[in-house]
Amino acid sequence: METERLQAPDGCVRLLQITDTHLFANADSQLLGVRTADSLAAVLERVQSNAHPFDCILATGDLSQDHTAESYQRFATMMAPLGKPIYWLPGNHDDAPLMTQQLYEAGISEAKWLVGEHWQIILLDTQVRTKPHGVLADHQLAALDHALRTHPDKHALIALHHQGVPVGCAWLDQHNLKNADDMFAVLARYPQTRTLLFGHVHQEFDEVHRGIRLIASPSTCIQFKPLCDDFTLDESGPGWRYLTLHPDGRIDTQVWRLPAGSFIPDSQARGY
């Protein structure tokens, strides 16, 4: 994995998580009644105006909805005014080779392993081409093992797209990380603080499983209603997450959202 130095001027690493933007080539295109470019623009406007500090951005997949070069160019252009390093991974809706090319050409780092004084951040690819569920390939599991073995003294934040445990939505949990047990087996070999951060589920989630904290965040566009067996959209506003990684392994985190009633999706939708 390509490695970069993780910046933490005062010992704390401050992150902004942006996930599931589902952008299109056409800025007017909608996902279930929401113009995704408009909702992302509104999120980024709030991020810039609320003065909450962050050192870098983690973009945890499904950046595109239509697999176009223009959608990734749009993402890069919209994120540029934030002026912070962006690190990314693909989701099930992304075209990973095209994503890699377009984001690289836009000057966005390809690094998937960020190493600092107290923390390391490992970005993993769970995509299975043309499938909604996720799998960690053997080389991804090996990369995770290598990173944790290399820095056993550093706390670890592992970013991925798919959920490693059920979030309580039957329709969505069938599209989970299929070999999560293999991932947990790797994590169990190392004693440092381990936290998983993911997207995909378009809702807030924060639970501990096998001693590992799992955190998910809302999408910048449509939201899925928690604890629903069947596909159900939520009218909660588009959101984003801040995280502060402390030197002692603690993580403080907050989800922010646009006001309720912002970008209400099509309530009659039964899937996408």
TrEMBL record:
The keyword Metal-binding applies. Residues 14-203 form the Calcineurin-like phosphoesterase domain. Fe cation 2 binds at D62, N92, H161, H200. Transmembrane segments: none annotated. Keywords: cAMP, Hydrolase, Iron, Metal-binding, Nucleotide-binding. It comes from the Bacteria. One of its GO terms (molecular function) is metal ion binding. Fe cation 1 binds at D20, H22, D62, H202. AMP binds at H22, D62, N92, H93, H202. Hydrolyzes cAMP to 5'-AMP. Plays an important regulatory role in modulating the intracellular concentration of cAMP, thereby influencing cAMP-dependent processes. This is 3',5'-cyclic adenosine monophosphate phosphodiesterase CpdA. It comes from Aeromonas diversa CDC 2478-85. The gene is cpdA.
